[in-house]
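Please, structure for the following, as tokens.
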Amino acid sequence: MEAHVKSVVTLISAGIALWIIGFVVCLAIGADAKVLWTCVMGVLLGLIGIRYTIRRARKSGI
């Protein structure tokens, strides 16, 4: 992967890590289910974003 793609994947991974931390904190304080599902969806969309970024970079020949 090119350095640009690696930096984008690193940025998305940092976002995923923050969503996971948020999920754990929300579990600890007993947040509503809506908040927990928001954290879960943030992680899932981040994983989709990583996959999309890597596939697009390979497809475009970067």
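Helices lie at 3-29, 33-60. The chain has two helices and no strands.
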